[in-house]
Model the fold of this input.
Amino acid sequence: MNSEQNLQQAEQLLAAWNKETTHPEANRLDAAIVADDLRPAVRALHDAHWGYLSSITGLDLGPDAGQMEALYHFCNGAAIATLRIRLPRTSDVSLPTIEDIIPPATFFERELHEMLGFRIEGGKSNERLFIPDDWPEDVYPLREDFKIEQARPVEGRHADELPEAGVVGGNKFVIPIGPQHPALKEPGHFEFTVDGEIVTAASMRLGYAHRGIEKAAESRNWIQNLYLFERICGICSHTHALAYSMGVEKLAQVEVPARAQAIRELVAGLERIHSHLLWLGVTAHEAGFDTLFMYSWRDRETVMNLLEQLTGNRVNYSANVLGGVKSDVGPEQAKAIKEGLNFLETRIRHYLEVVTTDTMFLNRTRGIGTISYEEAEEFGLLGPTARASGLLRDVRVEAPYGAYTRFPISGVTETNGDLEARCVVRLKELLVSCFALRTIVDNLPEGPLTTKMPRKVPAGETISRVEAPRGELFYYIKSNGTEHPARVHIRTPSLCNWVSVLEKAVGRQLADVPMLIAGMDPCFSCNDRLVTTVGASGDRKTWSWKQLREYGIEYYKR
Amino acid sequence: MRIGTMFKDIVRSFFTKSSTQLYPVERIAPPERYRGILSYNPSVCTGCTLCVKDCPSDAIELVILDRAAKKYVMKYRMDRCIYCGQCVVNCKPKGIGMSNQEWEHAALDQNFMVYYGKELDIAKYLESTAAAPVAKTDS
Amino acid sequence: MNTLTSLTSLLIFPAGLTLLLMGMLYEWTDRKLVARFQNRTGPRWFQPIADVVKLFAKEQITPGIKNPVLFFGLPIAAISGALTAALYVPLLGFAPAHSLPGDLIVTIYLLSLLTMCMGLAGWNTSSRFALVGATRALTQVFAYEAPFLLALLGPAMAAGSWQINVINDYAANHWFIISQPVGFVIALIGLMGKLELPPFDAPEAETEIVAGALTEYSGRGLAMFKIGKSIELVVGITLVSAFYLGGLHGILPFLTKTLGVLFVMTMLQSLLTRLRIDQTVGLWWRFGTILVLAQIVIIILLKGGLS
Done:
């Protein structure tokens, strides 16, 4: 079924509650509904297995317009159906929860609640996820009338309420992992209640790497934002820049030349190799297999050197500009890329063999964290984590963008759904990438590298989806015709995949927990949306080293 | 089912050179396109300030002393620059470039302001700001 | 004269200071070899010494400890256990400084004292990671201690004595690695378990429980535990190579044999993934014990048959 038929089917399913239908873009359907009809509409789409809930965007239309909007985006292949709810901007903006119908919706709803102040009725979505516990009540950062002076920590509450050390009822015991922990490459907070070595409950708090990027984007111009979004994450940086550029180019109705699109795909493929080799090393390190860690990271240097030769930097490549790419692929770069790819392919095949045959490593990965196809669908998983369970969710295959129509990628799936399958999926994807990249380098279309982009992007809104190494990256960009975006909402893939850790950790040993976390390839920098450091005395100066150290010592003496 | 699948790698590593780069004793030269510190050529500058407008981190400030006679002073804050290269892309007469040799910027003091331009112009600008101290913007 | 030689051998050579330096040397060899296996350069020769000096110079923080006497006393007990154990083994190829009948058991007990001290130290602090690490360390002791002792018992039974000195001399003519290969394998792997080297480093699993039982130690206490561990490394390797590799008589045989055993251990460290604690216990109680018991039965039968 192609997009049109998909959208027609969606329209039929929503006919009972749909007040108004619009098609903002060719592959999108916008259905305006009222808040009371949200649950039946979502249930209709869910029961018909029409796509999956990709994201929930909240918009504050401003105190002048007096309205707030919530957009529920469902994606099915290349088609996107959005349920649009408009609510008056009162002190009590409420929506019913849908987390009992679609479990992963709780993360999106919590973000709506924390950042914009929607009250979500029913369920646990009024708990905090991103914002620290000492953030004041009723202060919502993404509202139009938010002032930074309002962000003062509440007296008497710690930034993270940790349960008392030691025994918590019976033989149970809470082990905190993070924010500082050798298992985590980036900060995040998990609490695992263990009984001996078996985990009995799991919960998490995020927000330690939150930098307020969505809010910052509203005060920068379109070109500056490109570099802001690129720095959301170090290993998915090109895909963020790509999603943003594609969205803005769609709004401005600018066609990027074919050569630039091919080079964008080339850099994305190299980034994927970089990301998956890094992931392989991290997983091996979590398992205690340091040799594999060192060797895969040594080979990662090859791809980083290729990227440096091509774009000028090893991380944060900045290969994109709005309207094209910055740097060309000349004959010597092409030769270097092909040699590098040959070397990498041999090594990747070797790692694939190691991962599937080494007995001791398989002891830590085979049969652990198994997620079946149905569970993957219900949890709303994305990326290689879903593909390891047989669920092919890959934007490059389902909704090819850019040069993927010309240089397609075949999707890779496995059926077992355990940690070993996730390793195998990622490594096989790299082999597919190597093949595709060689084809691109040999068949780069001729042409210019950039086209002219207007400085003021015409008003409108657009959705841009790109396949990052961790899954589908979702950008919602809204412009009101000025030099600054009105709203940019980013939903990164790692946010959807956390459920796989929290659900599957229960019943397993404590030693499996870091492997489970590593198995879904978390990127905390990507998915955080807070830590404002306001001085303990309430002033907004940056803390001196001395103050910070004293605070730390005092905190831990308790 | 095998034990010790990385055995060949281990044995081979005795006969290959170690992959550790012994920086700073051994330095590998960066590639040609490497994005290092900025360089500025005032004689081709037109004063359009597109570089200033699009800098994501406000690292460049262009002081126009005399547009017709091409007397410009560029104030560049090395610590704010994120080495993205947008200013290089924006500059039509190619007045800004990025060096690929100078990129080691670890420093012991916080003196990161660099002044580019012709010697006379810089001297004149510094004199004028020293004589009539301008309110410093937030650092 | 006797007191003077005794004191010298206790404090300077071959135990005491020389032992400390040897411990550092072996630790460096281990780290350097692991690095070379992983295609890296590895630390320079003075790195372990520098680490110890740095740790002694650092501030010792005592967060949330239940019993301060234990907190400060356990590192001392641990290191003294290791140093005392060294008196009974043929260090550097010389005859052991002291020798009494049954000192094999005493030595192994003293080496276990080190692990017990670490376990107790983990319980003593109120850190959750330390408690999990301590639990794992003590569980692991229950796993490998019996097979390790039985594996060392093989040569003891063949030599007809529990005294390390006697076994060492007997082994000079009999290379037990050839006549008791299973025992050698178990002894070697048991040693890796005792020293908490990968793949048996679950008690100190950095990516799961930060640093295990020693999480809250810093400064002097940590330095003493580390020194204790490196001494345990030397003493353990000396024991295994004295028993199985034809006795240690002389400095050159000592160095070659012990460094050879270290090389094999390092290679095993690099090749294998860490085992979970339940997998460690399962492995030892299923394979380790059965194999070594079979070996002992064979020895008994052979000895009975020969005599």
User: Anything to note?
Assistant: Residues 137 and 154 of chain A are 9 Å apart (CA to CA). Confidence is low (pLDDT under 50) at residues 164-168, 529-545 of chain A.
